[in-house]
Amino acid sequence: MPVWERLKACRHLVIVACGTSYYSGCVGRYVFEKLTDIDVEVEVASEFRYRKLNFPSNTFIIALSQSGETADTLAAIREAKRKDASLLGIVNVVGSSISRETEAGIYNHAGPEIGVASTKIFTSQLTILTLLAILLGRHQHLSLTEGVEAIRAIRALPDQIRAVLAQNNHIQAIAEKYYKNSNWLFLGRKFNYPIAMEGALKLKEVSYIHAEGYAAGEMKHGPIALINPDMPTVAIVPKDDMYDKMISNINEIKSRRGPVIAIATQGDERVREMVDELIEIPPSLDYLNPILSVIPCQLLAYYCAFFLKRDIDKPRNLAKSVTVE
Ligand code: M6R
What we know:
Blueprint: H1 3-9, E1 12-17, H2 19-35, E2 39-44, H3 45-48, E3 59-65, H4 71-82, E4 86-91, H5 97-101, E5 104-107, H6 120-138, H7 144-165, H8 168-178, E6 183-188, H9 193-207, E7 210-215, E8 233-237, H10 243-254, E9 260-265, H11 269-274, E10 277-281, H12 289-307
Parallel strand pairs: 1-2, 1-3, 3-4, 4-5, 6-7, 6-8, 8-9, 9-10
Helix pairs in contact: 2-6, 2-9, 6-7, 7-12, 8-12, 9-12
The structure holds 5-amino-5-deoxy-1-O-phosphono-D-mannitol.
C-alpha cells in the first residue's frame, strides 16, 4: 500500500529522537493526542533498542532530527526496520542518512543551522508535527471548523513570534539580573512540560548553568526542597487548562521566597502581581503555545551565556551532529 494510504490508517506512532528533537517529539505527542485518534509514544533514540516494543501492524516510526546524521536515531530506525515498521523522517538536512534510510518524510527546509544549540529547528519541528497532526486528524475526528481554526492560528504565528522577539531588551535585562545564579528550575505542564525540559537544556548547554526541567506537578515530589532565594524558577503559565495548577505552583515557590520568571499570556495581570519577572506571549491555541513559549527560554539562555562570556555558538564538549552512539 502507498505510504499515504498506510499513514491514513495509522493508529500507533512512535517518535524517536535525541536532545532538542526529542523534546519537540514530546510536544508532538500531546498535539497528536489532541487532534487525532492515534496513540503516540516518544522514545529517546538511544533507549529505543532496549524497549520491548511490539508494533501493531499499522505503526509508523517517525525519526526527528535536524542533522539527519545522529547515530542513535539512525540505529533506532534500523532496529525498527528490522521489525518491519513503516518509517518516516522529519529532517532538515537534505540527502542526509536518515532521509535516505526512511521510506518517506518531510524536510524542514529551515536553512542551515550553524550554532550547536538547536533553536529554529525546534519551532520548525513543532510546526511540521502540528501540520501532520491536523492533516491526519482531518481524516479522523477533527472537524473542518477546528482545522480552519488551527490553520488561522498557525498563520498568525510569525507576527506573534515577532512580538515575543520585540521583548529582547527586557529578556536581556532579566538575564543580567539572574545569570550569576548557578541553579535554575523550569516548570511547565502538558504542552509546556517539554518546553520546561527544553528551556533547561538550552540554558545548561550554552551557559553551563545547572538547570532542571520538570513537569510542574512533580515539584512537590522532590525539587521543592531546592527552592530558595538563590534559585530562579522559570514558570511557563499560559492561559490554558493547566493555568490554575500552575498558579498554585507559583504560590508554592513564592511562599518559599524563590524568584519566579513567568512566561504568561499577554495582559495576565494576576500572574504579573505574583511573580518577580514577566515575559508575555500573545494568546494562541493551547497546543501552539509551545512555539511561542520556547522563544523566551532560548533568549534567556542566550543572554545568560553572553553575560558569562561563553562561546555561544560553540559550547564546550558538544558537536553539531552527534555521529557516535
Ligand atoms: O540533529 P539532531 O536533531 O538529531 O540532534 C539531536 C541532538 O543532538 C541535538 O538536538 C542536541 O541536543 C542539541 N545540541 C540541542 O541544542
